[in-house]
Amino acid sequence: TGGSDDNEEGSAVENEEAAKGADKGRKRATPRTRRAHARGRDRHGDEEDEDDDFGTRRAGHRRNRNRRRGRAAGNEASDSDMDPEKARKNQANQKSKEDDEEEEDEKGGKSGKGKNEKKGDKKADKKGKKEKANKKKKDKKKSGSGSDSESEEEPITEEELAKLKEEVEEKKKLIATLRNKPWKMKKKLSVLKEAQLFVEKFEGALGKGKGKKFYAYKVMMTKKWMKFQRDFENFKTACIPWEMKIKEIESHFGSSVASYFIFLRWMYGINMILFGLTFGLVMVPEALMGKPYGSLPRKTVPRAEEATAMNFATLWDFSGFAQYSVLFYGYYNNQRTIGWLKFRMPLSYFLVGVGSIGYSFMIVTRTMAKNANDDGGGDDTSFNFSWKMFTSWDYLIGNPETADNKFASITTSFKEAIVEEQESRKEENIHLTRFLRVLANFLALCTLAGSGYLIFFVVRRSQQFALEGLENYGWWERNEVNTVMSLLGMFCPTLFDVISSLENYHPRIALRWQLGRIFALFLGNLYTFIIALMDEINLKLEEEKIVKYNMTIWEASLYNGTIPENSTAPPIQVDPADVPRGPCWETMVGQEFVRLTVSDMMTTYITILIGDFLRAVFVRFFNYCWCWDLEYGFPSYSEFDISGNVLGLIFNQGMIWMGSFYAPCLPAINVFRLHTSMYLQCWAVMCCNVPQERVFKASRSNNFYMAMLLFILFLSTLPAVYTIVSIPPSFDCGPFSGKTRMFEVISETLEHDFPSWFGKVFGYASNPGLILPFILLMVLSLYYLNATSKSYKEANLELKKKLQSVRIENY
Predict the structure, then answer these.
(1) d(C-alpha 753, C-alpha 761), whole Å
(2) Pick from 200, 213, 212: which is nearest to 168 by CA?
């Protein structure tokens, strides 16, 4: 027995040395040695039977190893209850035990073969070592998938499943609320990484049986959908125009200044829609499918104006070639259909004009309703400064510029909160305050009356100049009305600002009073201008009657003087530039609104460059060599005028709504104005202005701006509707020429393009006997809904007060 043991030990040592030699030979193998090994394999083909016997023994050892792995997989469910670190340690220990058992099995198998099998054992060991090395490589690559599949074979109990589900939900909640934890960033990152690994590893095990794969697929698709939604929200935020500029302005100047730029961006979107309607459905079809320039008198510059039609002064005044183009009403032909598409130009022109007003009403009221819903019934000011102190900073900010903006935003919010607290605790002399407020209102009324009389006087003078002929006067007489209105809009808000300092209101209430006074100023100026235009329209209509009579005489003299009686010759061809034409009051109205819009735009730009930029340059560079401190004394840096800029936007938009029916180019001009104003004013605010001394928080909704915009929209539609319904269109220009009223294009379309019964139904529906009760029903419904919303709002406020009182009692 001792000899046999020695032989077995020797054979084992020889086998190990042979295996090491084979590995070394494998590492140093060359093409020559590989050919030698191939010849050796051919030589030893008779030893394959011994290899087969050894393979069966290896298969038995492999089955035992698989049984042990199955037992280990049964313990993975219990390991999942532990921490991930403990589970990994248990798996590593189990693997080392399996390797030790494999080596013992191999040694036992080798020693049991005896001396007579040494030769075959050596070769079998070489082959086994190769298989083992390849298997270890495959195990390293597929260890993760193999363990998952083996664990899936072993069922999980209901208790373990419920416990695992609770842990996964807790980890998910931890991931969602980790940002609010008062931990250091290093701890947050480590806890976040561990929680994400835990969720990724054990979330797929929450299914049952065959439903596990479907559950894992559902979880994967849910994660992908959530990621897509998050990325899409980020994409939508990135696509919002000028969002970062407005955030930067808000961080330095407060929410009140930022509210103006948000309002400007909203107005830009509205005008883009209006521009798309007029450009796509009116201007482009007429330019592409209508008759070209020079084919009709309305599309041709008169002979007397051809010499100066392309001068810069003429084009700047929107006369000459600009007047006889698609920019204005008079260029469009009254032909019912144009082009090969049979495009109905008069109908399109009328519907676009009415649809623009209807869309504006709809979007303004919808925005007001949305803002009213967003307003939650007041701010909760409990522990305001504590919340701002301990919860304002965002610990995930990694950009220095963003951190600076956030710091400035927090500072501004503290200033706003301090102003709110001071105003709530302020005590004042009631009698003195009332006297000063009455005095301020009296001065404001005097200013409004004076500005209205000045505009009325200037408009009367301009009418007198027009009767005598504007070519006999200079630039000031031709542009006197526009210039005076622009100057009043520039200086009167400053005067109102001085007057408002007597009233000692809260900054937010003072802003509303300021907006109301400037609104009254602009409204008076605008309606004075409209009244003057109506007088001018009446003059044009009288002139049109005279032109009609003269054209009849001209045509009769033309035919009587050139064509003999009883002649069958073709009619005489007259150049369109030589044909006499009417005054076309619609084009005149459109020109006035375009000039007023352009002059207002230029006044705004000049005010920014002179009043803000040059003033800031003077204060900045002359402060070192001046007698007093220019930055804190006179003139100092200018503050951003919120009220004047907001009212300028609103009344400019009112002119667009009022004049776009007669000048389709007005929405395009306003889009250009708003686009350039956004960049120019953002630059001026950040470079030339300083924050207000009393930074106040803007209201959560811009409904005050929207209410004024809705009111000016209503007032702007009245003149346009009056001219459409009551005044006859010009007889020789525009798409409605030849009709007694502009709205007759609707009845003409119903007569030619719809069946007769549809026309009758439309006639009954448009009967005033049906329209008036319907309007009354709508008014009553609005009143009921308004009363209901007020009651709900009061109930919400009462509930909020009760919750606050309960919370204070609990403290």
Answers:
(1) 15
(2) 200
At position 618, the amino acid (one-letter code) is F
Exposed e or buried b per residue across 63-81, where buried means at least 16 C-beta atoms within 10 angstroms of its C-beta: eeeeeebeebbeebbebbe
Cβ neighbours of 216 (radius 10 Å): 15
User: Which amino acid is present at 190?
Assistant: S
Render 738-762 in DSSP notation, one character per residue. TSSSTTHHHHHHHHHHS-HHHHHHH
Estimate the share of the chain in helix, then strand, then coil, as percent rounded to the nearest 5: 80, 0, 20
Closest residue by Cα to residue 93 from 75, 117, 116: 75
CA-wise closest residue to 537 among 666, 731, 727: 727
Strands 638-639 and 689-690: parallel
> Interior CA angle at 550 toward 544 and 552, to 5°?
105
Question: What's the rounded mean pLDDT across residues 327-351?
Answer: 90
Q: Which two tokens stand for residue 204?
A: 């797929």
- DSSP calls for 30-72: -HHHHHHHHHHHHHTGGGHHHHHHHHHHHHHHHHHHHHHHHHH
Read off the amino acid at residue 308: T
Q: Rounded to two decimals, what is the model's pTM?
A: 0.66
Cα 621 to its chain centre, rounded Å, is 40
The pLDDT of residue 114: 44
Please tell me the total number of residues recorded for the chain in this structure: 811
Say if residues 642 and 626 touch (Cβ distance below 8 Å). Answer: no
Q: Give the DSSP H or E segment for 288.
A: helix 284-289
* Phi, psi dihedral angles at 639 (to 5 degrees): -95, 155
Q: Which of 129-133, 264-268, 744-748 has the lowest mean pLDDT?
A: 129-133
Handedness of CA 287, 289, 291, 294 (dihedral sign): positive
The whole-angstrom distance between residue 531's C-alpha and the CA centroid of its chain comes to 39
Asked if 174 and 191 touch (Cβ cutoff 8 Å), the reply is yes
| Amino acid occupying residue 768 | P
Residue pair 745/732 in contact (Cβ under 8 Å)? The answer is no
321 pLDDT above the threshold of 60? yes
Cβ-contact 126, 20 below 8 angstroms: no
Is 588 within 8 Å of 595 (Cβ atoms)? no
- Cα-Cα-Cα-Cα torsion 797, 799, 802, 803, nearest 10 degrees, comes to -100
Choose the most confident range, by mean pLDDT, from 152-156, 381-385, 463-467: 463-467
Q: Which pLDDT tens digit goes with each residue over 493-519?
A: 778 878 877 777 767 677 778 777 877
Residue 575 has pLDDT above 50, yes or no: yes
| Two structure tokens written together for 705 | 């701006």
Most confident of 21-30, 346-355, 538-547, 552-561: 346-355
Q: Both tokens of residue 442?
A: 């009296």
